[in-house]
Amino acid sequence: MPHHQIVIIGGGNAGISTAAQLLRKNRKLDIAIVDPADKHYYQPAWTLVGGGAFDILKTERSEASVMPKGVTWIKQKALGFAPEQSQVTLDNGILTYDYMVVCPGIQLNWGDIKGLSETLGKNNVCSNYSFESAPYTFECVKNFKGGKALFHNPSTPVKCGGAPHKIMYLATDYFRKHGVLPKADVQYWSGAAKLFAVPQYEKTLLEVVKRGNIKLNFLYNLTEIDGPNHRAKFVGFGEKNKDEVKEVEFDMIHVTPPQSAPDFIRNSSLANSAGWVEIDKGTLQHVRHSNIFSLGDASGLPISKTGAAIRKQAPVVVTNLLDVMAGQLPSATYLGYTSCPLVTGYGKLVLAEFDYNNTPMETFPFDQSKERWSMYQLKREVLPRMYWGAILKGLA
């Protein structure tokens, strides 16, 4: 059986940046990354792509181009785990390891909404959650001449929890700039109980909602879409609206697919009861297997799933993995930092940064709950360059 000192499951942001940081600490480490992908994507820019403010082609590079030098790339799918034997089952056999980092990202469950897969990318049904469909979002926004514009957020955790409403704010701003907003009925249908978890940021967002005359509907799941007839079916599950069915006609709808950990994680002994990798939220070490760590979207951390969170998690995993390899206890602690750059219009952004307790952990010496042009430029110009040039190289 092929064997490596450290096996990393997943070659996305978390896997690549963790491998790069490990190699910067010790070039002699034997690291393998397991990932079948040909392409690597900078997904945070897809909101701007959907708003017509970013080139989709600048979000895609080859996976080979971001693989750190000195890493063995195993271009296979992981199918399952036998942690007691330190084994991973791949689609072409068994791989063994001394230590493992599990970070395969999140699974988009398009099929959980009846009719979505058949109509996505046509009939004015769009989503920024895939490379293929994100540009169609702007087609829908640009061609909207009035009527009902629906924006959906599922009840599951999703990558970048703000993304489902960020595109709504951009679209509403576009409608306003092109004189369409007075003829628009903009509606937000969400499986969450509120707009945003941190009160000081939510306060600003509610003002943005008011500015766009957006109608908010909470604790509803989108269960079905009839694309040709432009109808969406929502089912309530809150105390006041339990099992209430709403069939809503639309002139355009932006859908965020329900999401989960990948099936091979959900169905494994590494998972908690909700299907995510079960780790200590401070050390990021698996609660039952001391030679396994996890970070990123597949991990069972009680925090928003963002690239910014990964940037703070990776150094903790690197430090604690090296501690364990040296026979010591983990010494680094992750405090739950995450960030959501909340685009509220063209040239406007609220930079939300907070921890496990939804307490702000802000970077800049000003009130980040305010909409700012400078923070919009940070998202559009600075962060993509930082991702490709520093984060994936283990430098940030």
Structure overview:
The structure is a single chain. With 396 residues, this protein is an alpha/beta fold. It folds into 2 domains: 3-106 and 261-335 and 388-393, FAD/NAD(P)-binding domain; 116-259, FAD/NAD(P)-binding domain (3-Layer(bba) Sandwich), CATH 3.50.50. The protein is built from 10 helices and 21 strands. The chain has helices at 13-25, 46-50, 63-66, 116-119, 134-143, 163-177, 199-211, 263-266, 307-325, 373-389; strands at 3-9, 31-34, 39-41, 60-62, 72-74, 78-82, 87-90, 93-102, 107-108, 125-126, 147-153, 184-190, 215-218, 220-226, 231-236, 245-249, 252-254, 259-260, 292-294, 338-345, 348-354. Strands 1, 2, 5, 6, 7, 8 and 19 form a 7-stranded mixed beta sheet that branches. Helix 1 (13-25) packs across helix 9. The protein is globular and about 65 Å long. It starts with a strand and ends in a 7-residue tail after the last helix.
Key features?
single chain; 396 residues; FAD/NAD(P)-binding domain; five-stranded parallel beta sheet; 10 helices; 26% helix
